[in-house]
Structure prediction request, 250 residues.
Amino acid sequence: MSLSALGRKDVLYFFVHVQKTAGTSFLQRAVYSNFAPEEICSGVRIRTFRKALKPSHRFAHGHVAYGLHWLTRRPVVYLTFLRHPVDRAISHYYFIRQCDPRLCRHDRYEAATLMDLVTFYRQPQFRNEMTMMLAGIFWHKLQAYLAHPAFGQRALRQACFNLRHRFACFGLQERFEDSLQLFAHTLGWRMLPQDVRLKQTRARPKLEEVPFALYQELARLNDLDMVLYRYACRFFAERMRQRIPLTFTS
Prediction:
């Protein structure tokens, strides 16, 4: 797919929403100011995507890995946000624990309440979330069953390739305002000026407060995400310098 697809009337923008990467703030600042409510398909799930997607939908988002273009004939333009892996891991863990099960039943709530932070991320299915989601649906679904290092390295290569060639634009949580500028420049969107911060995780240690040993262990357990994030930071800096649209393929 080339950037010419952005001008097509049937194009569908899909936001790969990796949890705790400023996705909700991105929706508030960038998406709701450019798409009407009836044009947005929210909370996408793989099993129900085809039934939920309507011709009027121009934007969709959900905690779903790259690959929904296999389920529709419409051209799909992918977007996402990333975050420092250790910071994201801590925020995600504490966010799950703080979910009120009476109001919202997170599918990892039981695991997070029964395990400490490190034990939680020692479970293969909870590691390297950014890498597996950017690599694709296949990789994301199999990560709990294929723990061999060769699987992880292949997923990492695929995630890096997809980020560079198959995502129209991406942002970094740590450079949120710059990211919005990049989205505006690439897609021609207008951004809301106010600083909206939603769904912030309470009572969690800040990254700079994390003991070095704990930081090292979380980085080790999310080693693929660490490599992907460093790659993304270099690529983001390149994009900010050039201020030119990505060339991406399907």
